[in-house]
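Re: Re: token formats

Sure, here are both.
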Amino acid sequence: MEPDQTINWHVFDKMRTGAGSNWPRYISYEGNDTSLFTWMRERETEEVTFAPCGDLEVDASDANLGGLTLKPGRHRIRMTLPRTLRRLSIMGNPKLVDFDVPVDGKWPDMYLADDDSGILSSVDGLPYLASVRSLGIRNTVLGTPFDCRSLLTLRNLTHIRLYGAMAHLDALAELPLNGLELRFVSDLNGLPDLGTWPELSYFIAWNVEESVGKTLRKAVKQLPDSEDSFFGVSQLRSKQWFIEEHGLPFAGWTSKNEKTASKAYKAASKILKTATTKAEARNTIAAFVETINGLAGIETSERDDAGDAVALLAGVNPTLMTPEEALIWFDEIRDF
């Protein structure tokens, strides 16, 4: 449909699910027709994903909506939020949106993820977060970390969900948390002792680095258990796991080459973990490079990526080789 085309949302008025609830339960819309929110004044909807095609100002205060995901793209959105809204996600640059709530409304649980850049480094310059009590942050797993110090201006926060690379976790000690969730965090250095938060009743650490994770696993066993609390620590991961699953430098390659190179890297890493001699290390690096030699379309940028991968492999078993040695072997063997 054209971005500015008006849609007759009332065609859905009589549609129901087999259980008798409104259908569709979830609506995903890309365009500028804000009558969607007018229609929902009389029509309860569970979730809406809204991606405008231009700058918009929307009064959605009377919309009967449970969850909203906004994808601003390059456009600015100013919205008065529905008073019934419980969940709000910003999938894009959070500085392109601004919000008000009705006088009789409450701030929903919020979630920020800059899908356009993949990186969310702070929440500075986002005044609409000042009254939020529950906030989720999604960042790239490896790369520029999110600065947890930027959360300290949000004095109403009591529940935080953190996903991906994080820095200055020690700053969380200054917030009166009753809930903390950590997922895919590869570096937990500085995380305060869980006893820092006397009101903590909900804690999850899942797919986090193993060194601090083991300490957390012991710590949660000491926390008081009740029907209203939940504490869990699981899927502890090594630094190498994070690199292999989220940090390999082949993302810009063709799909076929990326798959082959990643498989070869993981095979080499597995061998290096148990290797005991420099000769084994060199042979393993050689086998990896020979695999790359056999791929089509390896140009200058891919050569640099392959070199980065070899340097990463050197870190798997640093007692057998330095990155400099591994790169010498790389240059000796490569034909690209």
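Second one below.
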Amino acid sequence: MGALQMVRKILLIAYNGVTALDLVGPMQVFSTASGYSKATTGVALYDLAVASVDGGAVATSTGLHILARPFREIGLEQIDTIIVPGGRPNDNSVFDTRLVAWLAENGPRSRRVCSVCVGAFLLAEAGLLAGRFATTHWDFIETLKRKCDGATILDGPIFVHDGNIWSSAGVSAGIDLALHLVEDDHGRKLAMDVAKMLVVYFRRPGNQHQFSTSLSLQASTDTDFSDLLTWAAGHLKENLSVEVLASRSGMSVRSFTRKFRVAVGLTPAAAIEKMRFEEAKRLLSEGDLPLKRVASVCGFRDEQTLRRAFQRIADVSPSEYRQRFS
């Protein structure tokens, strides 16, 4: 980064009901990158601005108020990247028609337009997702698919890039996206330095699930199966065959398998594999146990079974995962 390094203008959109972390998370990443560069080279890399349709104090969903500049004061020709945070997608007040019109007009002029979480709904309203691949918060994937049938909405990635449109998954994924943009602009080293400074992962696997597998399984089922899954999470090393699980539930194998699949949405074997995978990720990121030992502790038959599970579920090998997160 030399003295002639370009300063990129990042415009973060604010509106009443915006999710605070969707806005300030990415903003902190860019600010930290700029501050780090200025301290080491004397050059600020980013010029950050928060703007809204009318300007003034904007109330976030937490009650925190953020002071925004009105759009009319923003030099549109200078904008490099627009960040659209999420808010309450079912609240019509979020979709101010003036904001939608502004995005429709100015989004295509910017090098990058990025949505965080359900900010993707605003991009959809502005017509910016037509024909694009995109993602959003896991709980609103199906809603966005129905709302924007001209787009391909993906439910696995932490973020998606298609043309000048970037979209990220739920809330904290905006930080992942911002780190990637810093890397794209100024290289891996600076992005890694920022991640270390903020004490966050530099990069999660691109198709990592957006919330804990064991928690999501428990949240999707009834009390009886929630208790069973909680017990299973503490006994992953043991035999957790469908026969064992059915017996613990007091059901026949056939009845248990049918009811479990209806309640959880997965076969018992698939659910247990996901829980073992989740625990293996934790062990790989937090310690240096040999892969053979990780496989044993998590209940995988052998190291090769562990490798196959990682490739199928996360599209990375256990060793690659450890290198990224340990």
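The chain has two domains: 8-198, 213-325. The chain has 14 helices and ten strands.
- S.
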